[in-house]
Amino acid sequence: AQSPSGPDSNRARKLLFRLSKPPYGRSQAREALDALLAAAAFEQDVSVLFVGDGLYLLLKNQQPGAIEQKNFTASFGLFNLYGINQIYAAETDLVERRLTPDQLALPVTVLSREELTSLLRSQDQILSF
Fold it and tell me: Is 7:116 a contact under the CB 8 Å cutoff?
């Protein structure tokens, strides 16, 4: 689908999904995933930034069945199919939570504060969940 005519009408919009909420107990993470996949299906330039407690979405070997929740993090495997390969994590938030990239279920590009600022400035729209 083409956007309305204008100087950038043929350029995909750069959408950054900023995920900052923990994985369980609320619906934001599921809603973010649904919105992310929908945007990618419409051929937008989608990237994902995990910050704060949103980093816990990416932890390997989650056992949400113990709290009667579904493990939707397996859905992150759909990112490749939808062409979502710009996946970022905030370095300071990883350090604060004593997490390392090898503990995460997806490969991420770890961004310093300066790189994070640059990423945020380069986006057409930022959607925070």
Answer: no
Predicted structure pTM score: 0.82
Report whether 101 contacts 110 (CB < 8 A).
yes
Q: State residue 70's pLDDT score.
A: 64
Across 2-6, 75-79, 105-109, least confident range: 2-6
Where does the chain have alpha helices with state H?
A: 28-41, 78-81, 91-96, 113-121
Cβ atoms < 10 Å from Cβ of 41: 12
Strands (E), the chain: 14-19, 45-50, 86-90, 109-111, 125-128
27: which residues sit within 8 A by CB, 6+ positions away? none
